[in-house]
């Protein structure tokens, strides 16, 4: 069936601010869907309250509504499209791209009769299907009816029903609340004494106060299938995904592998059949679906865990893993096309009605941020706790696993062999039994210390095949230690590289050699990294997409062009302090380069983001943003330069190495960035410019710190140099607390220096963002924080433009911004943080890079600031070439959003270390707004040390 021509205008519901359990994979899906519908000549409107994402940018939607995600907001938009002659009436709504938030909102609007009232058709899913899949009892009953196995379970709406269910089923149990996301409110109950508290939490978490009490199949294997179905009832399986971690850990917190590695063909065929049966049973709709199964490792019995009738966290991963753009195709299916009528996006010559075949392995490893949540329960379970993830591609599982470890940004050079292993056998065995963020590394440590594989399997329930693969690394390490760098046989060196060992790991294992020496020896032996294309069809048809991963073989498939080109370094996995706003900046960097006729090359390893969509860059390298990988891509591509300003601290950390090797950094030079990062040099500069700054000192141990603190005066702010998101910062008020803080910091970050600043108690805080082209400086925006100094800028409510600062203060902020931009010879972006006390303006820090706030200001003022900055960095334009017109009426408030519900045991106090996971934008007409007045009243409440 060709497309439904009655649909001319579609509303896409976004997923709102980033929270744990619902991150930028939905921004990726929503962006893809919007572009897919626009290709069909359909007008796309987007509602989403998240200012940091590319989805809410003018390059994605025709009409973007940055409004709270409520039914009232939707009604206002639908009415506006009826009343305004310039806007087309909205014909349909697509709610499957915005995670659980969008689905729940769609159901609520349906119950309130909104879609019916405005004549809007729900596409991509059936409202009845949402009910069948989200209501745990309906889902269980449906599975029983169609003959698909489920775990024994009972539904409960009260304490009494819950206790009866537990008595009938027996322990261990799992509690699953209805209509929640990321496992919120769910959990395991191993014994009777824990049941009451777990049941209460589950009943409270469910919006309908309903939970499923289910027999826990702990230790079973867990799998997911990604499906697509068209209105002709054709169903295809895009990808099978296997969890490395067995049942008991939320899939968002599990290491996952695609395609499934340890699944027998018989079991896979049975799973396929059941998944197709399930998708057909939940309703008549065309779109994407994610199904989760559990398999008993003893006899291959299969039970269904759940089905999500929307794109999911895993479908972003599956899209990147296979090169099959699930959201893009799902959007076309939603408007009526059948699979065989859509062009295959990769080959351009075959149809989309095919199942991808992979000749490589994908590994996803989650990224946690427990260091931000003091006192959090770090054990992994049914509630998702990770804040981001990395994906790696290799020819084998073990190569991909090591590349994933290099991508995580936790200072690891691969899976172990980097001097950071744990040697405490009691801690290791406890960590294997109680899984946390580091269990993968502890498995390797246990093997290195000689713990038998069978003992590890018994305690972790991880499939023996995976453990054998890791054990092979230990054997290779033992063998490597027999050699010195100059007598390693060429074939053995090749094996090490094929198993994912980085040069720095090899150097560490050999001892007394450097990474560069290993690199040079490898090159001398002719062992070079080659690049393979991700082509979805195992090279059966020629692919047209420039999407690559590296491995060690003979043939290189990435042929560099002789065009002028630039590499954009991405920001790696999402984490607190470095989130989706840097992906937004990277996408604009790519677009600016392409618009300027320069080939745009992207390097990044985050599967959730738009920057790693194969349609965004001219060439995408899905690789770790890790020195060895970046270096070899640069050697192959020979770009005119590398952009490090847009990828947050991840990219910035490479600036020094690039600079040392004479590789051009596009925009501000490394030397000038280093002045801003180095507290001593930066303070000397401020002194020279006659700009006030808080008194400070530098210490290398606790004794020095106490002397410095007494000189600058308490309270003091203690922090390590070169960090992002306030990592390790604290405010201390006496010698005793200072000593503890310094000892802890130097223990966590050995070899670092500690900065001690006088803390301006009860000061106001503000920040400015600006763009400089080396001659002129344009102030992008100045924001005033509602909370006082001492709360990290990422956790503060901030108002654009400033609302209470006297004119002489804002004039000083502007003057200092221009002075610093010129003194540092900034080419591109600059963010400056200020503290204001008694109307005196102090500069706290300056960051010559894209900040967390530029995307927010760009949305609020409706000016493409990053695009402008990128063109200036590339040297193709000057500020005077742009006409900048700000379009904000009233004020815009940046609202931080926290994910504390995942850590009920953590205190909600705020301080200099950032804790928010995302943000929303809210527009107000004036300062009489009741919402703003309440915020202003509560402003100091959560301030802590």
From TrEMBL:
One of its GO terms (biological process) is glutamine metabolic process. Its cofactor is Mn(2+). The keyword tRNA-binding does not apply. It comes from the Bacteria. GO terms for cellular component: cytoplasm. Large subunit of the glutamine-dependent carbamoyl phosphate synthetase (CPSase). CPSase catalyzes the formation of carbamoyl phosphate from the ammonia moiety of glutamine, carbonate, and phosphate donated by ATP, constituting the first step of 2 biosynthetic pathways, one leading to arginine and/or urea and the other to pyrimidine nucleotides. Pathway: Amino-acid biosynthesis; L-arginine biosynthesis; carbamoyl phosphate from bicarbonate: step 1/1; Pyrimidine metabolism; UMP biosynthesis via de novo pathway; (S)-dihydroorotate from bicarbonate: step 1/3. Keywords: Amino-acid biosynthesis, Arginine biosynthesis, ATP-binding, Ligase, Magnesium, Manganese, Metal-binding, Nucleotide-binding, Pyrimidine biosynthesis, Repeat. GO terms for molecular function: ATP binding; carbamoyl-phosphate synthase (ammonia) activity; carbamoyl-phosphate synthase (glutamine-hydrolyzing) activity; metal ion binding. Composed of two chains; the small (or glutamine) chain promotes the hydrolysis of glutamine to ammonia, which is used by the large (or ammonia) chain to synthesize carbamoyl phosphate. Tetramer of heterodimers (alpha,beta)4. SMART domains: CPSase_L_D3. PROSITE patterns: ATP_GRASP, CPSASE_1, CPSASE_2, PROKAR_LIPOPROTEIN. It catalyses: hydrogencarbonate + L-glutamine + 2 ATP + H2O = carbamoyl phosphate + L-glutamate + 2 ADP + phosphate + 2 H(+); hydrogencarbonate + NH4(+) + 2 ATP = carbamoyl phosphate + 2 ADP + phosphate + 2 H(+). The keyword Signal does not apply. Belongs to the CarB family. NCBIfam families: CPSaseII_lrg, PRK05294.1, PRK12815.1. Its EC number is 6.3.5.5. This is Carbamoyl-phosphate synthase large subunit. Residues 140-335, 683-874 form the ATP-grasp domain.
